[in-house]
Amino acid sequence: MTSAAPVWSEPARRALDQTCVTVLGCGGLGVPAAWTLALGGVKRLRLVDPDVVELANLHRQVAFGQGDLGVPKVDALARWLQSRVPGLVIERVVARVTADTLDEVLRGCDAVVEGTDDTLSKFLVNDWAIRPGRDGRTRVATIAAAIQRKGQLFTVTPHGACYRCLFEEPPPPECVGTCAIAGVMGPAVGQVGAWAARSLLAVLQGQADPAESALLRLDPRGVHRTAVSPAGDCPCAASRLTGGRVHA
Ligand SMILES: [Zn+2]
């Protein structure tokens, strides 16, 4: 397993050893994201999801099998990861994130892959990421979404444009498709989840990443990048004025 891990500089590796990474949503996006993070050298993972494994999940949530039906996803995924990455420390939280619970769910963590199918959660995580973390540490979040055969991701740091610079506000619920309604293609969502984790790892490593302050859209025709400029009237503008330290 260790042969798949990237080469980290010593300072970056030490910083990563102290970094708790949360995977918010342990479904089609979160499963490949968690697997990629574990292979990428993350030592502490927090898995957050309110649901149990259902039969309809199995085609795209490849960590789960028939024997996991009815089991909380965080428990099944933790078991699957720990059998493959010995020494990985995993915290499990059975919860759906709301505005009232987000800070508590993410307490002690500095980095998040947001992979739920809840649009509001993506904005909550964005607003969390643009605020300073514990002891002034920089927070990082990669916000991912997938539907049908398409997906997108956006990595937020306090230094650049954020998710609200692009989308401003969550759309009304009646305008939001879900995997349950619109369907999702397993390999497509898996690719987006893994890509989201790779983007987060790159930023934690102090490397430039194409999804940082940009919307990466993946569809059957390829990958499309839309750079986003910081909006002067966005809440992230105030955070940028205070400055932010590079994580590693
Ligand atoms: Zn912004």
Describe, in short, the structure shown:
With 248 residues, this protein is α/β, with parallel strands linked by helices. Helices cover 32% and strands 19% of the residues. The chain has helices at residues 10-17, 30-39, 73-82, 102-105, 119-129, 163-167, 179-182, 186-204, 235-242, and strands at 20-24, 44-48, 89-93, 111-114, 140-147, 150-156, 214-219, 222-227.
The first-to-last residue Cα distance is 24 Å
CATH architecture: 3-Layer(aba) Sandwich
* Number of discrete helical segments: 9
Q: The CATH topology, please?
A: Rossmann fold
Measured by DSSP, the beta-strand proportion falls in: 15-25%
Topology, please?
Elements: H1 10-17, E1 20-24, H2 30-39, E2 44-48, H3 73-82, E3 89-93, H4 102-105, E4 111-114, H5 119-129, E5 140-147, E6 150-156, H6 163-167, H7 179-182, H8 186-204, E7 214-219, E8 222-227, H9 235-242
Parallel strand pairs: 1-2, 1-4, 2-3, 4-5
Antiparallel strand pairs: 5-6, 6-7, 7-8
Zinc ion binds at residues 161-162, 164-165, 231, 234, 236.
